[in-house]
Amino acid sequence: MQGHDPSKMDKGDAEKDKASDSQKMPAMDHSKMQHQGDGGMAEMAHGTMDLSTATRATRAQKFAWAFLSLVLLAAGLIFSATVVNLNLSARDVGGAIMPPGMIMLRDTPGDAMLDMAAVDPRHVSYTAPANAKGDNELQPRTENGVKIFELTTSVIKWNILPYEQVMGYAFNQQIPGPRIRITEGDRIRIRVTNNLPESTTVHWHGLILPNAMDGPAEITQEPIQPGESFTYEFVAQQAGTFFYHTHDHPDRQQALGLYGAVIIDPRTLQAIPAYDLEYTIQLQEWLEREGYTFPAMLMEGGLPNFFTINGKAYPSTDTIHMKVGQKIRIRFIGSNNNFIHPMHIHGGPFTLVETDGNLVPESARIQKDTVNVGPGERYDVIWEAREPGKWLLHCHIPHHTTNNNVEEQGAGGLTMILNVTP
Fold it and tell me: What is the pTM assigned to this prediction?
């Protein structure tokens, strides 16, 4: 049996007492805290304790916040007034959708916005077949020696590529409008019916005619209102390559497709080099973004991303088939609205024989392989097929030979092929 050690017992008893005290202390603290919590809750329930005084705003603070809000509101209004026209409402511009990236300043008028806006899909009245072609010759009827043509404007959907459709303004549901081919000396009558959402007129570009028949809206005639018609009548006094196009809202309507060729054959044989074929080329630019078609123009946000010959972009443009030794008369028409296109033909030079409907005298004829076709200009050239192969006819601005910046089958846009066989 071991002996009793008082020191060890005292030490053990002290540790037990210490543990007992430590166990009692939390219990006491918890009881005290619970008592205080219950009391505090009771005090809050009886409204004797108000915590809102810590967050209650003073009168000076309220005034400061109100003043700051007014300053921020005024700054927002001033900033908005410097960049947009606050006098215009959505009703004033018909809910127009503007081209992405176009700069709209505070003094941009509503009429300008309407001219630059996307074609409203609700105005489309016809969808052309994907393979439909424009520039089809329009056959007249004859009454008392007068050749009578009918033109009708409307909003249509038109494929410039099998997968790319634009919404455009069209004569007789085609882009370009139908070709009017007459003979020098013919008396013609052209009845124009307007089914567009805005007024329009028709100008006969380069023709000698009575001033009242010239076509500028509000200058020589009242605009043709939607649903109304106007009849133009004159005698063809010239021979050559001409065209017709709208002369009301021209920044919009020309860019969206309201144009067509006028070919006037001479009454007597002209002193011009012989040729075997002929082809008319009408140029145009397009701006299509996110399913909307905007009139392409030379300004921020309005630059084109598609380009067409006779309403189609390569590789959907025509291929001209020729034999070695044959000659072709190509009629370039600057039906395009804003841009200059240096049109170039591979495989050798061509002879310039007519400009703007006027014959070039034999002594003044020159040979070129590129001609700058600007808006409104016409150049007739004769090109000879010298060697077999696929010879390109294209604009020499590379961006204009792409489709939305992409080449397809080696090119795009303003490109055609002259396929020459032996």
Answer: 0.80
